[in-house]
Amino acid sequence: MQDWIALSDLTEMQAPAQPLRRALFVCEIALPVADSAVLLDWQPEGAQARTFAIFLDAQMGLVLMQRSGSQVRRHVLPGPLPTDQGTARISYGWNQLADRWDLQFTRLGTDEVFAARGVNPILLGTDDLADICRPDGAGSRHPALLWFGVTQGAAPPERAPWIGLRTPIETARGRVAAGALRPGDMVLTADNGLQPVLRATRLRLPGRGSFAPVILRAPFLGQRSDVLISADQLVAMNGPEVEYMFGEEEVLIHAEALADGSIARIDGFRAAMDCVSLDLGLPELMIADGLQILSHGAAQAAPRPVLYRYEAQQLVSLIGRRTRHGAA
Fold first, then answer.
1. Rounded CA gap, 94 and 219, in Å?
2. pLDDT of 26 strictly over 80
3. Model pTM?
4. Considering Cα of 242, then 243, then 247, then 249, what sign does the dihedral take?
5. Beta-bridge partners for 287
6. For 187-199, what is each residue's pLDDT tens digit?
7. 145-174 mean pLDDT
8. Which of 77, 143, 175, 186 could form a disulfide with 168 if both were Cys (CB 3.0 to 4.6 A apart)?
9. Three-state DSSP class for residue 21
10. 3-state SS, one letter per residue, for 139-180
11. What's phi and psi for 317, nearest 5 deg?
């Protein structure tokens, strides 16, 4: 699995200037869309004609068109395609060595996958990608297009827990923004006092669609300011509702489950964003502006019970009733 080397609205490429002989273009769109829509249309001015465009028609299907000088390719995934409510992911992969391209349409959250395959792909270069990603570049985007990116892996990088760069973390030298932490810094944990940061990994990820982060709103969970974290980030919860429902003093809940619009909300305003993953070795509850959030990296059992989705929804519903009535 590889990282993203290009993301919409970020023009700094994570690879040297070169043609990409093997890569995967991925985008997500908000459904439903019009019966026929041009999702992305890139046609820069220059001596050599170049085009990278994606057309979607619910009945006719999906068409990806490429042009580089005299070379023209029209990759077609025949319809009909499901375009009712939800989020869809479109993937276009090419491999020059295998002389193959693959086009796929998936409605997220379902088993519906539609695919087509062909030969003789046209390569995209990192210079082209930088211009396609520019919000003020030569390309036009449909409002339904949430984000797009390119990776050299065979599949898109998975979602992963992370925290925003400005999240204040309690350390041996006071509060430090998460993005400023480095290996060796001592971070305060709920169970084992000060623990050293082993790895602080900066991530560049999509910020919309299935990758959209969550804003935990102050002061509902005891923090002084809003905190931006990934939907997969585990957060410690305690209080009378936790003890009543689960017989535990404290449990862990995925931030996504907290996004009820009051305690927290999904934040999909940025097409791409920078964030950080902090590895302390063993799973530890770090103190972040009054919150306890689980560290990253260690594939071991969490120090508190982790709620299932249906359990989390019930807990959030109870807590929401209390916060709506003004209780702290």
1. 48
2. yes
3. 0.88
4. positive
5. 292
6. 999 999 999 999 9
7. 93
8. 175
9. coil
10. EEECCCEEEEEEECCCCCCCCCCCEECCCEEEECCEEEEHHH
11. -60, -45
